[in-house]
Amino acid sequence: MGKKAVEIVSVDVDKLIHMLNAALAEEWLAYYQYWIGARLMEGPMRSEIEPELLLHATEELNHAEQVADRIIQLGGTPIIHPKEWFNQSRCEYESPEDPYVEKILEQNLQGERCAIQRYNEIADFTSGKDHSTHQMAISIMNDELEHENDIEAWITDLNRMKEELKKIRI
Fold it and tell me: What is the pTM of this model?
């Protein structure tokens, strides 16, 4: 980390690097969960939801890049082995064994809520103490909030569609 950067950061850098490595692990798992889920997904609205899930996957990968870069800027080493992703992550990776669209969305929704919590903690930890990491955490958290909103809207649409189909059958 640069000399001036060391002067202006007033947090426990080791603790912050640990938090960021956990976030990095979660981003890689989220990326793969979105990517593989979008490819395997079956069911109604698949053609509308798949490209959006792939966009979310790309955004998760971008988050991983930002977090890894910040870890390096802070003088740390990003997780270097994928086996560590599961050890460092508190967010669950749920394999899409049931490829039904609603199940895929529910799995991703849980991941987004976990990510929101993670970045809120990083933002709180760095508020007024490490402006660069704080700004990054807020930016990523805003993306995660948008993802959560997208997924909730799709689930609402699917539920509304199911209700309408029930009315037709009656």
Answer: 0.92
